[in-house]
Amino acid sequence: MQALYNLLAEKFRLTFDDTELLETAFTHTSYANEHRLLKISHNERLEFLGDAVLQLVISEYLFALYPSKPEGDLSKMRSMIVREESLAGFSRDCGFDQFIKLGKGEEKSGGRNRDTILGDLFEAFLGALLLDKGVETVRNFIQQVMIPKVEAGQFEQVIDYKTRLQEILQIHGDVQITYEVTSESGPAHAKEFEVQVSVNGKLIGQGRGRSKKAAEQEAAKKAVENKVDPSCI
């Protein structure tokens, strides 16, 4: 973990008084489960706390930045900023993906690159930072890491992949598009859903997300990116 401490100090000028908090933030449930005899804590509780402070800080920021925008527009912008894919991107930007502790199975299956895991990691880090340094330090970190991309307009355009997929598939007429939840896992406060999308009974995409809607969007996105051919449906 020394490399992580050095990264935080050099890149963000952050030091933790309680280093166990930081280690917990970077410990995935799969790692803790593989080392049960050591009674290692994992990051799900910190993720819960980090999600709350992130929502607060981003809401405050958007409220002040856009005094004339209605609540609906602000909610859409906030959801884009704090969605799983965005938070995973911030984790990668910070270099956090290098340091998360994963179980062997999760590591082999590509967990280190999975948006769900990296998004949760970012929230867990914010939760640990809140407990160790307080809300102002969290706010300053978010200002440094997240806000420049917000100000660059990165989250202003919302792509509705379900609508886009429907437009592509229905170019030759009506088709039956079906989204089905194939599995769900995780604790109540951090559920993960897997969804598959089919057209006329043919599977064309799969996705994961922390809500059914997010998983459906991810499945539709995968189908669009795979350039599904409507003439073959």
Report on the architecture of this protein.
The protein has 233 residues and is mainly α. The chain folds into two domains: 2-151, Ribonuclease III domain (Ribonuclease iii, N-terminal Endonuclease Domain, Chain A, Orthogonal Bundle), CATH 1.10.1520; 161-228, Double Stranded RNA Binding Domain (2-Layer Sandwich), CATH 3.30.160. It has twelve helices and three strands, in the order H-H-H-H-H-H-H-H-H-H-H-E-E-E-H. The chain has helices at 2-12, 19-25, 29-34, 44-65, 71-82, 84-94, 104-108, 115-133, 135-145, 147-151, 161-169, 212-225; strands spanning 177-185, 192-199, 202-209. Strands 1-2-3 form a three-stranded antiparallel beta sheet, with helices on one face. A hairpin with a 6-residue loop joins strand 1 (177-185) and strand 2. The protein is globular, with a radius of gyration of 19 Å.
Instruction: Based on the coordinates given, report the CATH architecture of the largest domain.
Output: Orthogonal Bundle
CATH superfamily of the largest domain: Ribonuclease III domain
Strand order of the largest sheet: 1-2-3
CATH top level of the largest domain? Answer: Mainly Alpha
Write the layout of secondary structure elements.
Layout: H1 2-12, H2 19-25, H3 29-34, H4 44-65, H5 71-82, H6 84-94, H7 104-108, H8 115-133, H9 135-145, H10 147-151, H11 161-169, E1 177-185, E2 192-199, E3 202-209, H12 212-225
Antiparallel strand pairs: 1-2, 2-3
Helix pairs in contact: 2-8, 4-5, 4-8, 4-9, 6-8, 8-9, 11-12
